[in-house]
Amino acid sequence: MERERKKGYAWAISAGLNAALAAISAKFFSSQLKYALVVFFNVIMWGCYFNSMKSLSSLQATVTNFATNFLSSGLSGFLLFEEALPIKVIFIHSFTSFGKADTHHPLII
């Protein structure tokens, strides 16, 4: 069971990284190559996301995917495109990332 959950998190992280790669390729490349790469990375991202939901709840998969995408997109924007990285972004991401730590328990509404 624990091994399956780790595989699920690996798939969710891969999904987030592929989503960030789609955004990076949209900014980094021009012409038809840009559109082809965006579609390619998004298709890979959806495949990884669906695989992550085989082992994780939809909440765990979504939050892990989002947190990875958010962090990697922000860092790539800062490192590759010299965009500002305000403290507000870091603060929001820390709540998103660390707030997902205990999402394996059922959500009680």
UniProtKB/TrEMBL annotation:
InterPro entries for this protein: TMEM42
Transmembrane annotation, as ranges: 32-50
Keyword set, alphabetical order: Membrane, Transmembrane, Transmembrane helix
Name the UniProt record assigns to this protein: Uncharacterized protein
